[in-house]
Amino acid sequence: MSHKLRVGELKEDYLTDEEIWRIFTIVLSSKSVKSSTYKYALIKALIENLYQVNEDFEVTYDQLAYTFTKVYWNLIVTHKLTQHNRGKNARVVTIIEEEQKKYSIPSEMIFDKLNDSLQVTLISKVKSTMKINVFGALYGDTRAKFYAFDHKTEKLRFNPAVHDFMLNYQRLIIHLTNYHMAAMIEELNEVPSINYLLGKVESIAKRSSLQPFEKILLSHFEASCFYCGKALTGKKRETHVDHFIPWSFVQSDHIWKLVLSCNKCNSSKSDKLPERGYLDGIVGRNEQLIVSEPCGEVVRLMENYKPKKIIMLYDYSIKNGFDSIWRP
């Protein structure tokens, strides 16, 4: 069976959009064997890491497990949706509930507020479960055409054609995935936990605070708004950290797409893209950031960053409907 595979190789490098859509349709339909919500969570994790691939279109198991764990922490701990399997209890539920009970963690505690060692422990345990039940299962459902994987190197490599496809249709794919995942959770869980279910499934919880990024940016650059240039002083222009690319499009926090902003600009920009002229500004800002600290924390935070990535992300945001352009 495909879920027991330790290595999966790509069967085809080239696929047309029509062929990819056909496979996605099968994955999301009743023709695909879905005993748990795992496949949906993996698709969500793949989408959240589209912009984190290296030059060989690879993403690490740790990167995928981080998002996968956040998805389930949000559902299990925050929203108390604990049924994710048609048979016995899903292993990821047991892992998260055991750690929550062990450390008496309240339900309002979001994943990124947990201490680093506990996050690492959870991600490691979830990654082990993904090796057994997740990577091979979706690989089989996608007919070995979407990605390759290797448990020894702990890397998943996208089919370049599928990576490009997912970038192009990112918003549509995530909406379809959320809908089908919510439908399955609704079937497995009882009321009242299913109230406003789609909203609970759609969200990959935001980091509780962007203050660590704010401190790094302030330590390398002047305290001025990236957009209007005014000094970030006084109550009217208090410092904010803004997602240059709307968070609702890519629900992840990476320093290379975060900027310092004043309250006025941050509020008026909201969920919009800034006009294209600011793109050159953030590319230049990121280059300065890399040069200013060639080793240490910034290097880790800028891992896999390339200028073309944020340009590509900007262009794909527009293709996915974020075409309302903002200017101060």
From TrEMBL:
Gene3D superfamilies: 1.10.30.50. CDD domains: HNHc. The keyword Metal-binding does not apply. It comes from Bacillus salacetis. InterPro entries: HNH_nuc. Residues 213-267 form the HNH nuclease domain. Coiled coil: none annotated. One of its GO terms (molecular function) is endonuclease activity. It comes from the Bacteria. The keyword Signal does not apply. This is HNH endonuclease. Keywords: Endonuclease, Hydrolase, Nuclease.
